[in-house]
Write a structure and sequence with these properties.
Distance between the termini: 22 Å
Number of strands: 8
Oligomer: single chain
Radius of gyration: 18 Å
Number of domains: 1
Helix content: 25-40%
Strand content: 5-15%
Number of helices: 11
CATH topology: Rossmann fold
Largest sheet: 8 strands, mixed
Shape: globular
Order of helices and strands: HEEEHEHEHEHHHHHEHEH
Strand order of the largest sheet: 1-2-4-3-5-6-7-8
CATH superfamily: Alpha/Beta hydrolase fold, catalytic domain
CATH class: Alpha Beta
Length: 311
Amino acid sequence: MSEFRPPFLFKNPHLQTILPNLFRKRNFPTTRETLDTPDGDFIHLDWKTEGNKTVTVVIHGLESSANQNYMQAMGDCLLTHGSDVVLYNLRSCSGEPNRLFRSYFGGDSLDLDHVLKHVQGKKYEQINVVGFSFGGNITLKYLGEFGENARCDKAVAISVPIDLGASSDHFNAPSNRFYLKRFLDKLKGKLLEKEPLFSDQLNRDTINSFQTFEEYDDYYTAPAHGFKSGRDYYEKCSSVNYLSGIRKPALLINAKDDPFLTKECFPHHIAKENPFFHLETPEHGGHVGFFNFPFPEFFWHELRAVSFLGL
């Protein structure tokens, strides 16, 4: 059960998903750090510190960034409750193109481990992770892969498509075509920016022809990141396949009416079997929504994350 109860007029999942992006504004100034990666690329980390003993790394969703309102608001909520904050921009998402042909993908646990190792060097007493959507899948996969060796103490994942293949197919439904087009337009735009540098591997006409996530992932994500196909990528990177290996306290919050999620994204059986993995499924909330109206200072999921992290 969940305590989140939106007003009747704001139960619609599409309103919950869209309205915060339109009307919620946050100003959370940060200091940017460039972290080099072992393969010659870089990751941008946006820090906000006040000398706290705890730090929380926050990871955004697909084709998003640290500048998005939900990221800024989560950072503000964490800082208000006593945690320093690192807003982690996945490769190519900080506003500056990354250097390599590869980019980011939904199971990039090695990049997350690299970031957390760097944060460990700051000598905090506690390190947390909060991952949204695509970033939540990376978070949960990382925890399951690394088990007791994960470089964080607690984690919260919010609105997460833990079965990438099922969610990819679900975006082809008529009710989700609006969201699919927005995501694909951004993904295609980034590939078109790469094309002049990698013209032997990318074709502009092919890129412009993509109509589904699987077409994009077959053409680019899979070969660029070492997978045989889009389906191979989905299978190997879906965090649902790693949840049983989690050995640090982790909370997954997925609303039952989230338009991006399928039945595979509500793993109650795993939550019953693994004492480290907790699942909360509010009846309403949409995708990274969870707001009451008029908008409060902090939304329900932000305060729920803070509570689970013990802040």
